[in-house]
Amino acid sequence: MADSIFSKIIRGEIPCLKVYEDEKVFSFLDINPIAPGHTLVIPKEPAETLDQLSDESAAALGKILPLLCRAVMKATGTRQYNILQNNGKGAHQAVAHVHFHIIPKPNSTEGLGIQWPTRPLPQEQGQEILAKIRDAIAGTVI
Questions:
Q1: Which domain holds residue 17?
Q2: Is 141 a domain residue?
Q3: φ, ψ at 74 (rounded to 5°)
Q4: Residues identified as active-site
């Protein structure tokens, strides 16, 4: 994995407004926020996408995300928010390092706007993908 801007932030080579840090996780305010309080949460482990991240780092992120969400909501006075995490350029990932966005949604015009183009899932297609996902899980040691 190439050295990313996030790796440089973790090492202190690029300044940031640090929100939180422990052995596995680093969090800071986004410098181009969608809404006030927009916070990034990243693992210290260099991994481009979530599926490439170790279970240990993933667990550390999962443990701290709720605490950081509560802190951001309290600080901003908002009750609604989005958690956004993209994997790969085609999925709108801008920095090749796993990162979660905590984005407060203070009102209908601020925060993240999403279009969700849904379509019905045909039963046969659903059963086929379900079997493949279950097979993939069964082949994994948890």
A1: 5-113
A2: no
A3: -65, -45
A4: 99
